[in-house]
Amino acid sequence: MQAQTLYEKLWSSHVVHQESDGTALIYIDRHLVHEVTSPQAFEGLKLAGRAPWRVSSIVATADHNTPTDHWDQGIQDPVSRQQVETLDANIRTVGALAYFPFKDQRQGIVHVIGPENGATLPGMTVVCGDSHTSTHGAFACLAHGIGTSEVEHVLATQCLLQKKSKTMLVKVEGELAEGVTAKDVVLAVIGRIGTAGGTGYAIEFGGSTIRGLSMEGRMTICNMAIEAGARAGMVAVDDVTIEYLRGRPYAPKDAHWEQAVTYWRTLISDEGARFDKVIEIDAAGLLPQVTWGTSPEMVTDILGRVPNPASVQDPVRREGMERALSYMGLVADTPLNEVEIDQVFIGSCTNSRIEDLREAAAVARGRRKSDRVKRVLVVPGSGLVKRQAEAEGLHEIFVAAGFEWREPGCSMCLAMNADRLLPGERCASTSNRNFEGRQGNGGRTHLVSPAMAAAAAVTGHFVDVRTFERLAEDGA
Amino acid sequence: MKAFTILEGLVAPLDRANVDTDAIIPKQFLKSIKRSGFGPNLFDEWRYRDHGEPGMDNASRPLNPDFVLNAERYRGAQILLTRQNFGCGSSREHAPWALEDYGFRALIGPSFADIFFNNCFKNGLLPIVLPEAVVDGLFSQCLANEGFRLKIDLREQTVSATDGSVLSFEVDAFRKECLLNGWDDIGLTLRHAEKIRAFEAQRKVEHPYFFA
Ligand code: SF4
User: Fold this and answer.
1) Between A and B, how many CB-CB pairs are < 8 A?
2) pTM of this structure
3) Domains and their CATH numbers in chain B
């Protein structure tokens, strides 16, 4: 048989029907649902008098609107509350494999809870009305975001209308330096190919650097595939994938486990498989990354400077840069490590898993937040992450450093709840989007890794985390 | 879904690359559980001088006179000219809902973000991809001629200007058929219900652990 890429294997094993122009009906195994993009879909279903096709494919949670403190007081914002209550009511009526409502111990960001509960499995198609569904591709799934009409379509038919994507291999080779993480890798990839570089492609991330990453790191990378324009990112199955899944609540058990593992082992790109495009990245010389503009592709490393639009020929790009610098309140040629910050956000589906919190805590340990920093929010990705972090005592490190330890949710990643920047405030954020207004109207976002965010919190400006000594556990 | 056949309408130029979905419709408006009413908050942060929140009386808010859609000459525009990678960012369908609610029926640009592009078709909004140089030309014509209009014929896959010039564009045959007829995707898919059921049954046999 002809050598196939991982994407081609996933695609061909889900085609139910194909139109003559290549549009295919793809079967959906897992449907993740949250409160923001689902109400209109459930309503459409009801208005058309249609029943959901397979409710046991649904895993739902409330994450975007939920507050991250004072849970005893419920959701104060009436509009947010209505949206969350609408989800409660819809799931109560329709049913689901699992529902983790507001305040549930396993509630959390939809892209964190799927994997940690073993509801995201290799070989599945996974969809959600949320663009960062690409995260789940770290498990060799075909996972991508869909719009609300498609949420309704999946509810009603268990299928999605799709055209096959082109394939891209992003091959990252080399060992990462201490202090350089998956987040830096993916920011560097986006800096290289641009936010539209992956449009029309499904990206497979491969190479020794990727194989050396934990599942958390791989999720961080696939999470931001969409920031490179690709709906789906993915990583082939290996021992790391399988070990992560063993024993998770919805992962297969006993004989099914053995059967599943045998199948999962085939979920790799075959030797000699052809990709439409191959990008090679050398990770060995990679430095920690910081974005300076209003698009994730506007990125440089910590030793770099804010770029100068005068040096750019293309007028559309130059104007875009000028607009970004003016919005960000930055002067061309300023060294990044002199840029001072007002707030720090450690969280989001990119970087709110246990490993991320450990990295931030390793930097924060025995140190204190800089006086010029107004607030440092640490928002775990889920209730389970929160409990794990507390079991490890990470919350005590954060609190001792003057950081705020919050309840799980999307929080200041998109500022739909009360956590947000004020106009003009500058934030070191571990999230995935630095768009204008993303973290609050007029707010200025710089995307960084959790370690870099913690280092910025304690110094008050961006700083090369590699120069930071990690203080020993006893505080010496 | 509204059918799309021929559209003859006023063109407005939005001269920015990488316009993201947060710019098209800021997140505070995503709290609505309805599908309609997003038009007054399209491009909210650029369009108004104050900060918009749901429930405000948009008609009495201060407009930003520098924002292109606020210019008198573009009032009632139905076709939006865009730059590359329009609609990047989130999967929120509120973006095409807002564009459609505002009155746009078609977008013309050199490239669109994938999920956004797809969402447009589900809402009777036609995104047309033309080469960068051609889009550049349309921007110049639009800026130079007040009242610049285009005629889009989906069946013929053409965009024609009043000076007689005709451009042709590509569109997937399946999407075109759906849009021309205003077909509902779900209804179409359910014609294959038997096939879906058979596929599902087979999958359950081969991969029972996906159905736990
Ligand atoms: S954390 Fe941010 S990017 Fe992730 S799902 Fe929530 S809002 Fe979206």
Assistant:
1) 190
2) 0.94
3) 6-181 (3.20.19.10), 184-212 (no CATH)
SS3 A291: strand
Q: Give the pLDDT confidence of A189-210 residue by residue, as tens digits.
A: 999 999 999 999 999 999 999 9
Q: Is A64 in the pocket of ligand 1 (CB under 6 A)?
A: yes
Taking only the tens place, the pLDDT of each residue in B151-206 is 999 999 999 998 889 999 999 999 999 999 999 899 999 999 999 999 999 999 99
Instruction: Name the β-bridge partners of B63.
Output: B48
The answer to whether residues A466 and A451 touch, using CB atoms and an 8 Å cutoff, is: no
Ramachandran bin of B130, using left for φ above 0, alpha for ψ from -120 to 50, beta for the remaining angles: beta
Q: Which residues in chain B touch residue A145, judged by CB atoms under 8 angstroms apart?
A: 90-91, 115
DSSP code for A179: T
Is the CB of A132 inside a 6 Å radius of any atom of ligand 1?
Answer: yes
State both tokens at A100.
């983790």
> Do the Cβ atoms of B114 and A200 come within 8 Å?
yes
CB within 8 A of B187, min separation 6: which ones?
none
A243-250's contacts with Cβ under 8 Å and 24+ in sequence apart are A244/A115, A244/A214, A244/A215, A245/A118, A245/A121, A245/A122, A245/A139, A248/A116, A248/A117, A248/A118, A249/A117, A249/A118, A249/A119, A250/A97, A250/A98, A250/A117, A250/A118, A250/A119, A250/A121, A250/B212
Count CA atoms within 13 Å of residue A214 on its CB side.
Answer: 10
Instruction: List, in sequence order, the alpha helices (H) in A1-38.
Output: 6-12
